[in-house]
């Protein structure tokens, strides 16, 4: 299947505005069109009465306002970007999933309207990320410009240029190659360094393992072999490797604190049959401090 453009869902909330901004920059970098989608629902039973028509008209006007505001944001970021807009009637999840068919990428804000305060990931974003037929990026609230921690723990302003790495969770599952292809391609396009996070908590406590250093060295060697083809293909991209004894979700959440983006596979080890997003990706979506990119093979 030929893939075309990037799709971003918006509902006018703060995080969806951030998603629109992120999608506009990425579409501009890729040289592809951006499709802005807003879905609004209404009770069809009210359409039997005159008031129902008034409700639909008011809801449509509000929806058109949401789309217009999103287009204005895009024009402020990439004035020459080709933009298509779609105002759709229906429940958000199925309409967004329909819109994602044939897309290179779907971008969403982490929270929508009507959510519970304190939750970082809304039900709509979770369901779309779980079932979308293409890769998905979920964008949440970002730190203030002068409150972005560096890897050493201090804080710096983002206004002078973003030198944060793109982090990627890599294991030896089948999805790892797609994660590596995605992170190296994006880092090369953005001039960004890469931080590879390989998390493997010990099955046996280190103090009970007779040669834990040898085990760590073997892990490092296998990971270096896994990275070698991509380092050769992108020799100018700096790569930092982190071997973490923490669980994969904990290691990736920690990496997100100093990253501009975290890339993970839709499945690693421990996948549940019938789901499109594994538990690690889902936990990261709930707790990450930066946008999360969930890779997924595009339909052929």
Automatic annotation (TrEMBL):
Q: Where is the UspA domain?
A: 6-139, 164-296
Record's Pfam families?
Answer: Usp
Give me the ranges of the annotated region Disordered.
146-170
Q: Which domain of life is it from?
A: Bacteria
- In Swiss-Prot or TrEMBL terms, this protein is called Nucleotide-binding universal stress UspA family protein
What the record says about family reads: Belongs to the universal stress protein A family.
Q: Which UniProt keywords apply?
A: ATP-binding, Nucleotide-binding
* Organism of this sequence: Actinoplanes octamycinicus
MF terms from GO for this chain are: ATP binding
């Amino acid at each position: 299947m030929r893939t075309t453009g990037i799709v971003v869902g918006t509902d006018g909330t703060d995080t969806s505005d951030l998603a629109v901004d992120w999608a506009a920059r990425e579409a501009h970098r890729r040289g592809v069109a951006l499709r802005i989608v807003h879905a609004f629902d209404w009770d069809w039973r009210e359409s039997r009465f005159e008031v129902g028509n008034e409700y639909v008209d008011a809801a449509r006007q509000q929806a058109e306002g949401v789309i217009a505001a999103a287009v204005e944001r895009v024009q402020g970021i990439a004035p020459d970007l080709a933009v298509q807009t779609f105002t759709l009637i229906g429940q958000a999840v199925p309409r967004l999933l329909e819109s994602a068919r044939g897309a290179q990428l779907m971008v969403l804000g982490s929270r929508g309207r009507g959510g519970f305060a304190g939750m970082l990931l809304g039900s709509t974003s979770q369901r779309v990320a779980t079932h979308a037929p293409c890769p998905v990026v979920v964008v949440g609230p970002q730190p203030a410009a002068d409150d972005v921690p560096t890897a050493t723990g201090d804080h710096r302003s983002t206004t002078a240029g973003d030198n944060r790495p793109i982090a990627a969770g890599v294991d030896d599952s089948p999805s790892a190659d797609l994660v590596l292809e995605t992170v190296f391609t994006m880092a090369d396009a953005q001039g960004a360094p890469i931080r590879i996070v390989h998390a493997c908590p010990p099955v046996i406590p280190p103090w009970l393992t007779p040669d834990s250093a040898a085990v760590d060295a073997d892990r490092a060697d296998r990971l270096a072999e896994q990275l070698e083809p991509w380092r050769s293909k992108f020799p100018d991209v700096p790569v930092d490797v982190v071997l973490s004894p923490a669980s994969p979700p904990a290691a990736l959440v920690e990496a997100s604190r100093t990253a501009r983006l975290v890339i993970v596979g839709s499945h690693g080890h421990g996948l549940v049959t019938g789901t499109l997003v594994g538990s690690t990706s889902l936990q990261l979506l709930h707790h990450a401090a930066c946008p999360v990119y969930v890779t997924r093979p595009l339909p052929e």
